[in-house]
Design brief:
about 220 residues; alpha+beta; Porin
Length: about 220
């Protein structure tokens, strides 16, 4: 949360400083792999704009890890502090760099096999013995972004503009917390179950870490004022 507040403070400071250097700003509406988003664009220098905003996407999907199927229910939520550099003055092409506050998080629910059991680490457990297999998946909060883009929301004498972004942000390896709720066996049995769940947790972490580099492809429209 401290990181989120720091990024918002940086955005407010940059917007305030830029307003003194040059009058004018723009609002954008975006849609793409980061979901729906809105951004405030402010001038920093003649060839540099600051872009600050948020994106949100509700995302549910299924994932198989070893012999266990999971339903993942979650959200992709990011807060952007980006800087667009127009390499050639008065052109629409830009290089973009910055940092994101990454609030992406998923709830994971293990689904038993047709026989009503789970198998991990070479051992099979019935749902009656194990209970429910639940977990949470999240990623590193600070995610650096790099990309390219087209369009300038602050084009002189033009209120409406279109733009597009192509880039990636690095959110690192997934962090997974997986727990079996409701073990009904003996203490020894439940300890073995917990040990096997820990092994499965590491396996699931490796599976979802395929998303440590997240692609960004989005487009939108802007209005300057």
């Amino acid at each position: 949360m401290a990181l989120k507040h720091s990024l918002l403070a940086a955005a407010v400071f940059a917007a305030s400083a830029s307003a003194q250097a040059q009058v004018g700003a723009a609002l954008t509406a975006d849609l793409g792999t980061t979901g729906a988003g809105v951004h405030l664009v402010v001038p920093m220098e003649s060839t540099l704009n600051g872009r600050f905003g948020a994106n949100y996407l509700k995302h549910d999907f299924d994932k198989r890890s070893g012999l266990v199927d999971y339903k993942l229910d979650g959200k992709l939520a990011t807060f952007d502090v980006l800087f667009d550099w127009y390499v050639i003055p008065h052109s629409s092409f830009r290089l973009t760099g910055g940092i994101l506050y990454n609030g992406t998080r998923f709830k994971a629910l293990g689904t038993p096999s047709a026989s009503g059991s789970f198998t991990f680490n070479g051992n099979t457990y019935s749902t009656g013995d194990l209970g429910a297999l639940k977990g949470e998946v999240n990623f590193r909060r600070a995610a650096p972004y790099i990309g390219i883009g087209w369009g300038n929301a602050l084009t002189p004498n033009k209120r409406w503009n279109f733009h597009a972004d192509l880039g990636v942000f690095h959110q690192g390896k997934a962090r997974v917390n997986l727990i079996a709720y409701g073990c009904t066996g003996s203490q020894t049995f439940c300890k073995q179950l917990a040990s096997d769940v820990n092994v499965e947790e590491l396996r699931l972490q490796e599976q979802v870490s395929d998303y440590k580099i997240y692609p960004v492809l989005r487009g939108g429209v802007s209005y300057s004022f």
